[in-house]
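ARCHIVE CARD
Drawer: 12
Card no.: 0347
Subject: one protein chain, sequence and derived structure
Cross-reference: see card 0346
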Amino acid sequence: MSQPTHPSAPRLKGRIALVTGASRGLGRAVALRFAQEGAHIVAFARTQGALEELDDAIRKVSGESATLIAESLTDFDKIDQVGAALHARFGKLDILVGAAATLGQLSPIGHYKPKMWNDIFDLNVHANWRLIRALDPLLRLSDAGRAMFVTSGVAHDPRMYWGPYAASKAALEQMVRIYAAEVAHTSVRANIINPGAVRTKMRAEAFPGEDPMSLPPPEAVTDVFVTLAEPACDKTGELFKAQ
């Protein structure tokens, strides 16, 4: 897709958007772009310092502070608490972006320790299920609730040594498609986004010999997130490629 255009009229003005993995990489780029488009950002990530840096950047582009949640997504009870807090403060949620993920190690399937396998599924699948479970009622209270979750090409293209990551992304996609079908009669829409190869820490971990400057920065693939977050977008249950 083309580089972000940043139109003069904000496309997400007044929308409340929760973004996971917001402290770095793609999640940070999406949060900042949404802020540029007029959304109030609820930034969810583990690292307080990085969230504060994001908040500084958001204030520069929007003049508004973000709501920061420095918690682990795999502390599942915290997700329920966040849902209750958002309902008390905003009374709804307009946009949910599930961008947080972990790669783990790249190994033959039989070489993974059970804990690492479980940790990958906890963040890549179970945390997103808990987000849907906790935040679906808030998305339904929006006039146009929009949910989107980040996947990877390895969910469809089996690749040696990528077992738990690929399997977790395939599971995530099926879960989101089922959720989209279940809410089709409401104003909520849910989709899946494959950002492609972008310049992130996870990409560098997976391809250590690759020149990161040969890849686009995550800021270059945010257009599709804005399009799917707009109230006018009625797409649901689909997979979109950002480039």
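Annotation on reverse: The two ends are 5 Å apart (CA to CA). Residues 16-241 form a domain with the Rossmann fold fold (CATH 3.40.50.720).
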